Amino acid sequence: MEDLAHSTCSLVRFVSTKPNIVTKNDGKRYSGSTVALYFTLGLFLGTSIITYKLAKNPPEFLFPHSSTTKLAEISSPRYGDPDKVVKELKNVLSADQIRSTKETLETHSDSSFSTHHATPDQRPVAVIFPNSTEEVSLVLKACHKYKVPVVPYTGGTSLEGHYTPTRKGISVDLSRMNKVLAVHAEDLDVTVQAAVGWQTLANYLKSYNLMFGPDPGPGACIGGMVGTSCSGTNAARWGTMKENVVSLTVVLADGTIIKTKNRPRKSAAGYNLNGLFIGSEGTLGIVTEATLKLNVKPKYENVAVISFPTISDASSTVAQFVQHGIQLDAMELLDDKMMKYVNVSGQTTLKYDEAPTLMLKIGGTTKEAVKSQINDVKRISKENHQNSFRFASSDAEREELWNARKVALWSTINYGQEYIDKDIQVWATDVAVPISKLCECLTTTKNEMNETGVAGAIVGHVGDGNYHAMILFKREDRPKVERIVRHMVDGALKAEGTVTGEHGVGMGKRGFLKQELPPDAIDLMRKIKFALDPYRILNPDKVFSIDPKDKGE
Ligand SMILES: Cc1cc2nc3c(=O)[nH]c(=O)nc-3n(C[C@H](O)[C@H](O)[C@H](O)COP(=O)(O)OP(=O)(O)OC[C@H]3O[C@@H](n4cnc5c(N)ncnc54)[C@H](O)[C@@H]3O)c2cc1C
Ligand SMILES: *[C@@H]1O[C@H](CO)[C@@H](O)[C@H](O)[C@H]1NC(C)=O
Ligand SMILES: *[C@@H]1O[C@H](CO)[C@@H](O)[C@H](O)[C@H]1NC(C)=O
Ligand SMILES: *[C@@H]1O[C@H](CO)[C@@H](O)[C@H](O)[C@H]1NC(C)=O
């Protein structure tokens, strides 16, 4: 497909001058030279074709008559000069809202813990810090006008190169839009701006005795959490981002501001626009506000720590909890290596067995309900050869345990730096499989890590069949790690699973996405992308390729 603005403009110019030329030549039609005749004939043919094309409704060059957009059918995007956008924005924003120090550009391109790294030239020209939805709209209007790539950014904790600027453009950091706008405690919902972090929100909701489900990486914010459709330790019980959004305010590629829904918990009013933006990784619009579903905190909740002789005992236990319909509030698995890293990191005051361990949240509205669940949990754990079973003895210990789980990646990296190599690299990746296949899949990954001789841990939000490998490696061993990850993904697909349960696709998993979905499904995503963002300016090259010349997979 041709660059749209370009073709539209030249066409309009041509059509609008047509009547003059035809009239001018009309009188000379039979008396002039052969050249004039051919010229007129040519002109006639040309205009007829264009008239014919315009008569088709909609014109074919704008909307190919197919339901999908294949990579082979399109041409490379042509982008404009980001400096023009920056210059224009300097007129409407204040100086402190446009930053281009080396450090700012670097933190908005990559992180040490990402699996996919930016090349040294993959940097934004500037980072813009809007104060409001209207300012985000101004930024996008300017980017649309000059066809300049634009990458949204909130917490910067995503792991697959999600916010790496692959094209010369700008980044939009929403960190100034960090306010909780309204809590409707009686309706169990809250409206927030995009840069409210899930931890900030959790603290804010404490006094209401309410909680928001999704809890991804420390530092992550609602905008990016919508972007990656994240989940976390609470998902098996309270759902992922997809189940927890009531409505969104989104700025579209050309600066149009939309709201997807009103505030009721359910609605059958038209398309599910929330679903369109959740998990779109900043490729379809910039989320500026969100109304989120809240849950009442369980009145009684215990945290149990159960260790097992083998990881397959631990994962079979989880599968049986699920198969028996035992509704736990969280089910986290940490392998022996992870327990060692947690232990060594000093994140917890108590030291734990360095053995495969389940951390469970067992909660309910009555003491009896919790007690009956605890009995079930104990019975099933025993049947699966548990080593030890203990409860967190205080609120402080519960917090500490859950925190240790949240910072598992940092503990792993610290261990690697201290005991393996100062320049240790980390690869943190996830897949999800049907629960009955969990045990086999994660044991295979663990064994392959061991046989390859690389260090690292397996952890998982195993209640929904989701497990992570955090692999530590020296730079020269990267190919070995790539092989392990490839096998982990292949294994998940063979088990009818997904190439990513919660981290998303970004740059790192685009190739794998093609393994999971039929080509037509990805071509449909591309069609949607082109319909909403015809100049391909919003976070280009993420999720799937938008450029036939792109060799990035
Ligand atoms: C230690 C650690 C633990 C983690 N644990 C989990 C976990 O348990 N579960 C889980 O799901 N993930 C986990 N993650 C991954 C990460 O935290 C999530 O992907 C999170 O949702 C990213 O949010 P963010 O604010 O950091 O987004 P960013 O990294 O800033 O952005 C993520 C994506 O969303 C886009 N985006 C950002 N802001 C907007 C916006 N306003 N509108 C539209 N698009 C936007 C970006 O362009 C990018 O594509 C973990 C990461 C770390 C480092
Ligand atoms: C945005 O907010 C900052 C900080 O409050 C302020 O300095 C700046 O002037 C605001 N920008 C505009 C365009 O009003
Ligand atoms: C835990 O870590 C400490 C050091 O912090 C170490 O001495 C101990 O052997 C580790 N293992 C166990 C099971 O406590
Ligand atoms: C692999 O497993 C064996 C047996 O449990 C263990 O002795 C060895 O240290 C492991 N290797 C690595 C690299 O972890």
From TrEMBL:
SUPFAM superfamilies from the UniProt entry: FAD-binding/transporter-associated domain-like, FAD-linked oxidases, C-terminal domain
UniProt catalytic activity: (R)-lactate + 2 Fe(III)-[cytochrome c] = 2 Fe(II)-[cytochrome c] + pyruvate + 2 H(+)
Record-level GO BP terms: lactate catabolic process
EC number(s) stated in the UniProt entry for this protein: 1.1.2.4
Domain FAD-binding PCMH-type: 120-297
Family: Belongs to the FAD-binding oxidoreductase/transferase type 4 family.
Listed name of the protein: D-lactate dehydrogenase (cytochrome)
